[in-house]
Amino acid sequence: MELPSFLHDLTGEGDKPSLEYANEIFSMLEVTKVRKKQVLLHIGDVADNIYIVKSGILKGSIMDENGKMHTVRFVADGSVMTAMYSFIDQKPSDLQIECIETGEVLCFRHQDFEYMSKLYSGLSPAFHKLMLKRYHNMLDEKSRMISHDATTRYIKFIERYARVL
């Protein structure tokens, strides 16, 4: 598996890790098999991993004030999921991550992130910039969800994940 595109945003010169170093770290990430209905992160737990999907599908859900779960995101091969604020700040997550299609994920652990941040002072600011970019992408995605009917959203989902389905 190639280095995911989001990791390219975290590399550079000077105070960021080199692309070669990122590739080396990426190649050492632990591969974990995940099974259907396995919860990788429960609401209220601290996110200790960023999950990079090698195969399978993960679902992210939030809970409303009545205790009802709502799906907010699906990710498949090559995509990434975590509760980013929980991961960065090591605070309880408001996101639940569940495997809905058996596969494998690469786990980038928080302790490795902390270690790399000490080596490269530019990594944390780059990570925050990446979080902001992902936040804006998520807002765009949510606005499309509101403006498109269920059939259109389903067709887009099938197109996006055709290689997995």
Count every helix, treating DSSP H or I runs of 4 or more residues as helices: 6
What is the terminal separation in angstroms?
A: 19 Å
From the spread of the alpha carbons, the general shape counts as globular
**Structural class by secondary-structure content:** alpha+beta
Helix fraction, binned, reads 25-40%
Number of strands: 6
Strand residues, percent: 25-35%
Order of H and E elements: HHEEEEEHEHHH
Uncertain residue segments: none
Could you give a short account of the major beta sheet?
6 strands, antiparallel
Using only C-alpha atoms, the radius of gyration works out to 16 Å
Question: What would the average pLDDT be, to the nearest integer?
Answer: 83
Could you explain the architecture of this structure?
The chain is α+β, with helices and mostly antiparallel strands. It is 39% helix and 28% strand. The chain has 6 helices and 6 strands. It has helices at 5-8, 19-27, 84-89, 110-119, 123-147, 150-160, and strands at 30-34, 39-41, 49-63, 69-75, 80-81, 96-109. The model has no long low-confidence stretch (mean pLDDT 83).
Q: What would the keywords be for this entry?
A:
single chain, 165 residues, 6-stranded antiparallel beta sheet, 6 helices
SSE layout:
Elements: H1 5-8, H2 19-27, E1 30-34, E2 39-41, E3 49-63, E4 69-75, E5 80-81, H3 84-89, E6 96-109, H4 110-119, H5 123-147, H6 150-160
Antiparallel strand pairs: 1-6, 2-6, 3-4, 3-5, 3-6
